[in-house]
UniProtKB/TrEMBL annotation:
This is Glyoxalase. Gene3D superfamilies: 3.40.50.880. The keyword Zinc does not apply. NCBIfam families: PRK11780.1. Keywords: Lyase.
Length: 220
């Protein structure tokens, strides 16, 4: 049986959901390595809807995270509450500001944020079972509240975001767009992706390294 990875999404679109390129690159690399995957998302209402052409909030428009995430997964997606750690060898969270708006309230609460309880219940069992956890873009900021203090992560080198991670008890490591930070003790792998990337190829290099390292760690 091939390795199996759970991929947790937060909608569809960088401003209010999962970053589309980051998600696609993650799924592409998993497939290239012969690793099976299944996408999950919480069945909740989005915090808000952003018109990605103008960057403005779409007044009066309401969307659901699971339904929007299904666009990225080509319909092959399950509610986050159905994720069973026993069925998977690792979990990966692509970025996008849905992580800071739908999976948590980091976008406006900063270091005082709260994380969606369904996400906590999904991720903590992977940590307890010492199964690898990959996070990219803004999602590493959730680690101190998800998994506890003292875990090394990166979002690149933005002082505001890195400062918030430190204020929550996390250990932020500066990192280039094409590299990764690995906390071997906690089996957590992170990369900046579109926190720094200016081209899809830049994001791809770091994301592919993250997935490759997750692949290696599943064998350990």
């Amino acid at each position: 049986m091939s390795k199996q990875v759970a991929v947790i999404l937060s909608g569809c679109g960088v401003q209010d959901g999962s970053e589309i390129y980051e998600t696609t690159l993650t799924l592409l690399r998993l497939d290239q390595l012969g690793i099976g995957y299944r996408c999950f998302a919480p069945d909740i209402e989005q915090h808000h809807v952003i018109d990605h052409r103008t960057g403005e909030m779409a007044e009066g428009e309401v969307r659901r995270v699971l339904v929007e995430s299904a666009r990225l997964a080509r319909g092959e997606i399950s509610p986050l509450e159905d994720l069973d750690v026993v069925e998977f060898d690792a979990v990966i969270l692509p970025g996008g500001f849905g992580a800071a708006k739908n999976l948590s309230n980091f976008a406006w609460a900063g270091s005082d944020m709260e994380v969606l309880e369904d996400l906590v219940e999904a991720i903590v069992p992977f940590h307890e079972a010492r199964k690898p956890i990959g996070l990219m873009c803004i999602t590493p900021a959730l680690v101190p509240k998800l998994l506890g203090p003292g875990i090394s992560v990166t979002i690149g080198h933005d002082p505001g975001f890195s400062g918030a991670i430190s204020a929550m008890g996390g250990l932020h490591r500066s990192c280039g767009v094409e590299d990764i930070v690995v906390d071997f003790e906690n089996r957590v792998v992170t990369t900046p992706a579109y926190m720094l990337a200016t081209r899809i190829s830049e994001a791809a290099t770091g994301i592919f390294k993250l997935v490759d390292r997750i692949d290696e760690m599943m064998d350990l």
